[in-house]
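Notebook entry, structure prediction.
Reason for the run: the old model in the group folder had no record of what sequence produced it. Starting over properly, with the input documented here first.
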Amino acid sequence: MADDLKKGLEGVLVEESSLSSIDGDAGELIYRGYSIEDLAREASYEEVLYLLWNGELPGREELDEFEERMNEERSIDDSVLETVERLAEQDPEPMAAIRTAVSQLGVTDPEPFEVDPEDRETNLEKGRRITAKLPTILAAFARIRDGESPVEPRDDLGHAANFLYMLNDEEPDEVAVETFDAALVLHADHGLNASTFSAMVTASTLSDVHSAITSAVGTLAGPLHGGANQNVMKMLQEIDESDKEPINWVEDALDRGRRVAGFGHRVYNVKDPRAYILGEMSESLAEEAGERKWYEYSIAIEEYMQEEKDIAPNVDFYSATTYYQMGIPIDLFTPIFAMSRVGGWTAHVLEQYEDNRIMRPRARYVGPTDQEFVPIDER
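New structure, fully documented this time:
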């Protein structure tokens, strides 16, 4: 491979951004200058949305107004709900359902389809509506496919609490809300990952916000990007059913050439900072439930992989057990990722519009040359 060829665009700088920064050697992640540890422990998801979209943390009055505007946008149009019902009856992948629903939101949105890249407020309103409605769409899909009726969002609940309420038709406890809210904060943005870059490529053509977010959802659906947390939980279940010790199971898996889910990262050379926080959450939930099995499996695997293979866990490794111990179905893990990351996608799309140049990389041609054309009757 030639030195100037960067497969997967690894290490290639394509844009400047003021949204998030990753130090892969130090294991640090910041959103607009704030450490992820401070934000996950002290700020709500709504505060982080405001930060990403407006460049600063809100004051109390600004946050109250922001939350009110989010609440006003949570309900979905009847036509969108009908689409969700049809998709749930056909039992597709949840990511396929929300990808289709986001695309349809573009049809029902009150703002024009055409994009004025200088009209930031209108573009932000589109992103705000998508962000507010995604939890409603996902919860409705999950309930309908289980034979239950959708639950309307409540005006007195925040983003995290509303989703858990709409999913289970009961008001969640404070621990569940705090845990889920922090998980949303941790997944809100992460530099130019594949789905974010996909949204930016679409936006760079001056396509609309809904098209850009639809592109991002489709990209996140791939197992090499958003599906890792689901694979982690399936792996842990397989270990549990095998009656093997976790380390023995991992050793056998590696001997067979199988990859251990939830380890390694394209950017981090050390433990993902988000994994530290999610690990703490997973342990707290285990303590509360009186069932430490899943957490202890995870700790044993992490210690083995770190000591024997020098590979650290990524965000997916502990988000899996965190969500599972909250009673969330495994195939909703990646859609929840989308439900959070849509805040970052929106912010990057807005940033792309502000200083736009259409994305147009090149490929080195390695095919045949000097081919002689033969008419079809002579072939």
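Summary: The mean pLDDT is 93.
The old model has been moved to the deprecated folder.
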